[in-house]
Amino acid sequence: MAEHGPLCVGIDPHPGLLSAWGLPDDATGVRAFAMTVVEALGGRVAALKPQSAFFERHGSAGIAVLEEVLAAARGAGSTQVVLDAKRGDIGSTMAGYADAYLGEHAPLACDALTVSPYLGFGSLGPAVEAAARTGRGLFVLALTSNPEGPEVQHAVLPAGHAAGGSAVARTIARAAGELNAAETARTGAALGSVGLVVGATIGTAADELEMALDQVGGPFLAPGVGAQGAGAAEIAQVFGGARHGVLASTSRAVLGAGPDARSLLDAARRAADEVAAAVR
Length: 280
Ligand SMILES: O=C(O)c1cc(=O)[nH]c(=O)n1[C@@H]1O[C@H](COP(=O)(O)O)[C@@H](O)[C@H]1O
What we know:
It catalyses: orotidine 5'-phosphate + H(+) = UMP + CO2. By secondary structure, the protein is of the alpha/beta class. The chain has a single domain, classed as TIM Barrel (Alpha-Beta Barrel), CATH 3.20.20.70. The protein contains eleven helices and eight strands. The chain has helices at residues 15-20, 27-41, 52-56, 59-74, 91-101, 125-134, 150-153, 168-187, 232-239, 252-255, 261-279, and strands at residues 7-11, 47-50, 80-87, 112-115, 137-143, 194-198, 220-222, 246-250. The chain has an eight-stranded parallel barrel with strand order 1-2-3-4-5-6-7-8, surrounded by six helices. α9 (232-239) packs parallel to α11 (261-279). The radius of gyration is 18 Å and the shape is globular. Bound molecules: orotidine-5'-monophosphate. Orotidine-5'-monophosphate binds next to β8 and α10.
């Protein structure tokens, strides 16, 4: 983030973008699309974030392409690879996802994985353990950028629950904060490995966390920049004093500049400069 500016570029091969790039809506088109992004931006942006859904929609051929794209992106030097798969399940099944994405010999290995805590934060245990063991990270959904998120994330826990009267999202931020505090006390690192997803579009909703965002002690993946309407002003508004930990994420706003590699890089650099100014 310090080297390239705190920008993550999503690799989201939407059917509409494949068509705009003159590519077929099949696994070969997805491969050409994703590899073009990796070649144009690998080693030149802080992070790349393949969106698993757009690979999965092509079945086993698409997943094989995702495997190849993850390996190529991880080989591209100083760029972190965040896989956006938003996985979440009961703990024993979560262990399967941990093997797939975070284990020692994970076929779909990434540097960090997006996970959903909405089966209860504790259900993520196997992913937390695998990430710690293999030196990887997680981005846990907390306050997402979509308008439907608040009906779950802002829901208030009943009296009698240990966090009764607080929003569900607060329990997630607190649990992540505890893991990060234990890790940073041990390692001395500035930030722990359990990041949160907090959309750049959420306005004042971080108030639901009833804690300063910098108490989370981990990075924030902040999608919603570009196509969903957020920019520098929104990042500054949402994150305030915690903005040094923000990795802003954008997909369509940069991908729309392709397929020309130079245009992709120019669009990414413009976006990175804008978010760097916003978090300074
Ligand atoms: O985890 C994510 O990255 C994510 C979380 C969230 O709250 N909102 C959100 O838009 N995303 C993802 O970020 C990308 C946003 O793409 P654009 O709207 O094109 O920038 C998509 O792949 C979304 O699935």
